[in-house]
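Why this split exists: single-chain examples teach little about how molecules sit against one another. For that reason, every record in the complexes split bundles all components of an assembly together and asks for one structure covering all of them. Below is a record exactly as it appears in the raw files.
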Amino acid sequence: MPELPEVETVVRTIYPHIRDCVFNDAQLLRASSLHPLSLPLSTLKGMRISSASRRGKLIVLGLARPDTQRKSQSAKIPQMLVAHLRMTGRLFAAEANLLHGSHTRCIFAMRRPDGSDFQLFFDDTRAFGQIMVATDEILHAWKFWRELGPEPLEIDATQFSERLKGSRAIKAALLDQRVIAGIGNIYADEALFQAAILPDRSTGSLSFSERGVLLAAIQDILKRSISQCGSSIRDYLDADGNAGAFQNTFMAYGRGGQQCARCGTILQKSRIGGRATVFCPGCQK
DNA sequence: AGCGGGACCTGTGGGC
DNA sequence: TGCCCACAGGTCCCGC
């Protein structure tokens, strides 16, 4: 499911529900939904959620130790709870008495500052997603985190251009989280369409000007999607259970066989890097 | 280096 | 109605 705009939307919609709330308990319903590098969920007990942010497609909840906790028990104090939703993951607040569903992978029992209780659910139909209770040290030991590329909304054309090394298909490069973080199959196709660049062009063949146009398209599309609360194709819902609306704006993704809105040519479907890819053979060069 | 294919999982939708 | 296959927003790993 979620690429950068959807993850950003989840972070924005979940934080009002969990801000300054404390973990009372945590229950893992499927062992593989906890990342192998994670501290045990039990280490969350007593920790307070002090921030919510996003890095690429990762949700990062900052943790603070309550003042009452002594420094002497500092053996393994987690600093953040990280979640990767992969294809079908969902994070949402639920009433304290709500029974979990068949795809719930983890349940956090939470307490609000006013003393009332609720649950934080991590649901994931396909069970590809994972959560991780981490310290800075653990994050640094995690290859995926360590090698994660820059945020697309925070780089300029020169920095972007320098990251497009080698000779592979530009779409494959955009999907590589080490090159740039947060872009997935939908936004890769949409950005390449908007920039009028063929997805199988080799990165080496792109002029500096084309790279600049592509970065501008990526940034424009991500910002517009965030403003529409992301795209909902099938599973994706934000933390309040609402769908996004950006799917109504798709020009390429999922439109194979239909007419190009820019030049009228029939959009073509192919496979690049093992991923379904839609492009316009008429106006993408 | 980079690509294709398979693996990890479950559900859905289309064709027959 | 039912069965089988293809396919799905992501990432990793292997072999060529």
